[in-house]
Amino acid sequence: MPLDYLDFDYSEDDEGTATWDALASVTAERVPALVAEVEQLLRWASRTFAGRRGPIEEGGEWDLDLHAQQDDGRPLAIGFDEASGHLRLGTVPGQRVTLGLTLSASTAFSEAMRRRYAID
Fold it and tell me: Span 71-79, mean pLDDT?
């Protein structure tokens, strides 16, 4: 299942912790599609690795960091509710939105994500 908006860069530290970074910038009309893609990915992570979200150094399998800003550079409120599977993103009508997502992940999570989303 390929991703349309999120294009991840991968890195790994000396302990084997993976970092997946994606940045997407879309027009106001494309924001709902971007939000749907992020929700779908984070719902998959929440279900597949249920109860295992948390800092890797504390035994978690995955964790996330989200940030967003509007076209003029002002930050936007953003958050993911794991219980409902919904992404909350405060937008300004007519403004382009840039969304950043960073996933910290174990080897098992990274392998599962590569398979699920056909990431090389």
Answer: 94
The model's pTM is 0.93
Distance CA 114, CA 16 (A): 16
Cα–Cα distance, 58 to 51 (Å, whole number): 13
Instruction: Let me know how long the chain is.
Output: 120
> Nearest Cα to 66, choosing from 51, 87, 47, 49?
87
Query: For residue 74, with 0-12 CB atoms within 10 Å meaning exposed, 13-18 middle and 19 or more buried, which class applies?
Result: exposed
Which residues, 6 or more positions from 15, have their beta carbon under 8 angstroms from its beta carbon?
Answer: none
Query: What residue ranges do the domains of the chain occupy?
Result: 8-117
